[in-house]
Amino acid sequence: MTAEKISRKELLKTEDEFITFSSKMIILAKEHQRKLKFMGVGLVCLILIYIGINTYLRYINTKAQDAYNIAYYALSKNMDSKADQDSIKKSEELFNDVSKKYGMSKAARLVLPELAYANFLQQEYDEAISKYQEFLTKAPEGPYQSLAETAIAVCYEEKGDIDKALQTLEKISSGPNDFFKEQALLGMARIYRAKGQKEKSNEILNKFIKDFPDSQFLSLAKANIKP
């Protein structure tokens, strides 16, 4: 009986406290009605600004992607030894336009490696390396980093700086067991083979066979091991 009375008393006390609290909030709201009104207007403005910015960024990203695709298509037609230099220059201009007009877009982040590749096609290896290295300072960890480093190694090899090409490939080969490590090991083996260092080449190829037993390049690695 006593427990029931205590529970009811506590319940009434809780209800009274809730009513008192609610009343105070209503009074407070009335006293600060003007301020709350301005806060509400401010919140609506912030929401509108947020929506406007997101809409604008979506528009920019769409326009930038369209411009990037046009530039990429123009460059992709010159990915062989018969590259047309005038077309490559035109592609460079198109990629530069993406950076200038849509610098805030996602597509603009990928312009540097495309410009670097255009330099590579024109045998401007130092310029290509410089752009790839700049991209490395901005690119997120992962495939983009490995792809840029692989491209740098190729540039060094093409310009005849074999030692730097090997250093770059060794850096990639110390990473995770992925496609880029496969290519790095095969590239190192090929370069050492060309330098007449058969034992070093075989050592790298044996490592490749051990690390990548299921690789599609396994037969190539085995075929290049020289007795």
Q: How does this structure look, described?
A:
Among the domains are: 70 residues, no CATH class; 88 residues, Serine Threonine Protein Phosphatase 5, Tetratricopeptide repeat. It is globular, with a radius of gyration of 32 Å. It starts with a helix and ends with a helix. With 227 residues, the chain is an all-alpha fold. The N terminus is likely disordered. The chain is 79% helix and 0% strand. The protein is built from ten helices and no strands.
Short description:
The protein is mainly α and 227 residues long. It contains ten helices and no strands.
Blueprint of the fold:
Blueprint: H1 2-31, H2 33-76, H3 85-101, H4 111-121, H5 125-138, H6 143-158, H7 162-173, H8 179-194, H9 198-211, H10 218-223
Helix pairs in contact: 2-3, 3-4, 4-5, 5-6, 6-7, 7-8, 8-9
Rg of Cα set: 32 Å
The CATH class of one domain: Mainly Alpha
What is the CATH architecture annotation of one domain?
Alpha Horseshoe
Class derived from helix and strand content: mainly alpha
Helix content: over 70%
Number of H/I helices: 10
Number of strands: 0
Largest sheet: none
CATH topology of one domain: Serine Threonine Protein Phosphatase 5, Tetratricopeptide repeat
Distance between the termini: 99 Å
What is the 3D shape? globular
Strand content: under 5%
The CATH homologous superfamily of one domain: Tetratricopeptide repeat domain
Low-pLDDT runs: 1-6, 8-15, 44-53
